[in-house]
Specification:
This protein is of the alpha/beta class. Helix content is about 40%, strand content about 20%. The longest helix is centred in the middle third of the chain and has 23 residues. The two termini are about 25 Å apart.
Length: about 230
């Protein structure tokens, strides 16, 4: 397979409180199984809790601007990406991609990527990576099973949605992105994904077997947005 699948991997899956080595081991084995079948991936890591903790620490010391907060978050994504690249080893490109608008020509089965510049999230970067490399599908690996009609961590009556349009998704998440925003997919990224007619599949990244079920065309738990 020459076509890439883009994975937007939530940073809070990699580092929920401390680095989750069990997840990294399972994720590595999953990627190795898939690449042996000929599948190729571009994996961009989010900053997650690491980014939010560092942003919060900076903000406690002084009032800090959005651009500086963003740079803190960007470097958290780069730390996570380097960690993942190291874990994947020779199957991955030997450097991390930081500019999603530049096409990377490589025979490597996996391209690792991280945050780009202030004002955009790694979800937005994932959409740009898909556009640049001709990918049609983005796997959005988060810490929940579905996209919900409201935040399931705050509302017990939150309703899971298995399939929805981009227009309806944008009504749920709104239209503005801010550094550290915790949403199933960045609103700015959603606008571009809709324009490019991309399919985004939101899955619980901790359930590797379920992610593999989707890729293998089996029944899966998750939300398709298109």
């Amino acid at each position: 397979m020459d076509e890439f699948i883009v994975i937007s991997l939530g940073g809070s899956i990699i580092v929920p409180d401390k680095v989750d080595t069990a997840f990294l081991r399972n994720f590595r084995n999953f990627i190795l199984r898939q690449t042996r079948k000929g599948q190729r991936f571009i994996i961009i890591c989010g900053g997650g809790k690491t980014a939010r903790n560092y942003m919060a620490a900076a903000s406690e010391v002084r009032k800090i601007g959005a651009a500086d907060l963003d740079w803190i978050g960007i470097h958290a994504t780069r730390l996570n990406a380097q960690l993942l690249r190291g874990v994947l080893g020779k199957v991955a490109l030997d450097r991390i991609i930081k500019d999603p608008t530049k096409k990377t020509s490589t025979k490597a089965a996996v391209i690792g990527a991280a945050g780009w510049k202030p004002g955009v999230s790694t979800d937005y970067d994932a959409v740009l990576l898909a556009k640049t490399h001709g990918a049609k599908v983005i796997l959005n690996l988060t810490d929940v099973d579905y996209v919900y009609d409201k935040n399931p961590k705050k509302f017990a009556d939150a309703r899971p949605i298995k399939q929805l349009s981009w227009s309806y998704f944008k009504k749920i998440v709104g239209g503005k992105w801010t550094p550290g925003l915790h949403a199933p997919f960045d609103p700015m990224a959603a606008k571009m994904a809709e324009k490019l007619k991309l399919k985004v599949v939101t899955l619980n990244g901790r359930n590797i077997k379920n992610v593999e079920n989707f890729l293998d065309g089996k029944e899966f738990i998750g939300t398709i947005i298109q």
